[in-house]
């Protein structure tokens, strides 16, 4: 019984580590894209529209990732 409990604890620790890794690996590129979009010149209407589209897509991707991670938990 003790061995089973230890295996379960090990599996749970591995699952948490995997979730943290996946979260980091998916969100890091999104953060870089978000920052790059924020650096676009808002004075130009075409660039401002592009910035808004990129920011919206990043937000949507972030929400999808969060939903997926919540489901895995």
Shape verdict: rod-shaped
How much is the radius of gyration in Å?
A: 19 Å
Largest sheet: none
What is the number of helical segments per DSSP (H or I, 4+ residues)?
A: 2
Classify the secondary structure makeup into a structural class. Answer: mainly alpha
Helical residue percent band: over 70%
Secondary-structure element sequence? HH
Low-confidence stretches: none
Mean pLDDT across all amino acids: 88
Strand content: under 5%
- The count of DSSP E runs of length 2 or more, i.e. the number of strands, is 0
Distance between the termini: 25 Å
Provide a quick synopsis of the model.
The chain is 89% helix and 0% strand. It is mainly α.
Helix-strand layout with pairing:
Layout: H1 2-38, H2 45-72
Helix pairs in contact: 1-2
Give an account of the 3D structure.
- The mean pLDDT is 88.
- It is built from two helices and no strands.
- It has helices spanning 2-38, 45-72.
- The longest helix has 37 residues, at 2-38.
- Helix content is 89%, strand content 0%.
- The two termini are 25 Å apart.
- Helix 1 (2-38) packs antiparallel against helix 2.
- The protein has 73 residues and is mainly α.
